Amino acid sequence: MAFSSSLALPSPSPPSGTFRARPAGRIRTGAAGRFQACSLPPPPPDVVVTRERGKNAKLIAELEKHNIQSLELPLIEHVDGPDTDRLPDALHNDKFDWIIITSPEAAAVFLKGWKAAGSPKVRVAVVGAGTARVFDEVSQLDHQSLEVAFSPSKAMGKILASELPRGSESTCKVLYPASAKASHEIQEGLSDRGFYVTRLNTYTTVPVEDVEPRTLKLAISAPVVAVASPSALKAWLKLISKVNNWDNSIACIGETTGSAAKKLGLKSVYYPTTPGLEGWVESILEALRVHRQLKEAPKC
């Protein structure tokens, strides 16, 4: 588990955020003698979860097993990239030795283009178990057309670039459908090893701009913010740019995002050595443990 230290969060409320917490309330007697329910303000969340709407359920469910209350505040959304429409033609008109897919979103976008191209036979290399799972149903139904054939020893793009197998051919052609904001680390690493890489920027991310003020206030009060990408991290920092002395913790899905957080000057940063949901949950729990220890420590 990697650690460094400093962060706090924004707060969501409908439609910008969803708060998963135990209901709080009390009963009072109305003027006519009937009992009426009176809602109390919800307790502050333990964790802000920030993936795109609809993609936080698994993390929230795992945290609930530890009695951790989450506030869902999507910080980014995915949109088409400049090369989205080029993907089906590239798959239909050319043959690649490998398709490189580095995230669940890249996998979902690729599958749309692959089906539009007529589901040609492809061999896929993936980064991370979460990315591989996106292909499970397709590869089971049509394993002869789409084969997930490689994943690196560690779920990082630079490791994939150093470990991807080469055939005996003089040229080994790779198609890399990526986020427009992804670094050039993979294509440069593969090119240095003699691969011929075609990169298509098939999607990109944009920050969520409209966050309801009460939701943001709740989020800022949470001791931990969970982020899954450098884009989400930057969106969070932009949201809290006018907040003074925010020094709560950031829990990152993996080393790439964790390193980005440190480069941006954040101090209380937690991330697993192996990216993935299980390690991410452990990083969140560790951040919360440290927060509680500091809170309970006697003041000198």
UniProtKB/TrEMBL annotation:
Protein EC: 4.2.1.75
All copies of domain Tetrapyrrole biosynthesis uroporphyrinogen III synthase, residue ranges: 59-282
Disordered, as annotated region: 1-24
Recorded catalytic activity of this chain's protein: hydroxymethylbilane = uroporphyrinogen III + H2O
Gene3D superfamilies: 3.40.50.10090
InterPro entries: 4pyrrol_syn_uPrphyn_synt_sf (IPR036108), 4pyrrol_synth_uPrphyn_synth (IPR003754), UROS/Hem4 (IPR039793)
Keyword Flavoprotein recorded: no
Record-linked Pfam families: HEM4
One annotated GO molecular function: uroporphyrinogen-III synthase activity
Alphabetical UniProt keywords: Lyase, Porphyrin biosynthesis
Composition skew (Low complexity), residue ranges: 1-10
Pathway(s) the chain acts in: Porphyrin-containing compound metabolism; protoporphyrin-IX biosynthesis; coproporphyrinogen-III from 5-aminolevulinate: step 3/4
Keyword Glycosyltransferase: no
Family: Belongs to the uroporphyrinogen-III synthase family.
Summary of the function given for this chain in its UniProt record: Catalyzes cyclization of the linear tetrapyrrole, hydroxymethylbilane, to the macrocyclic uroporphyrinogen III.
Protein name: Uroporphyrinogen-III synthase
Organism: Urochloa decumbens
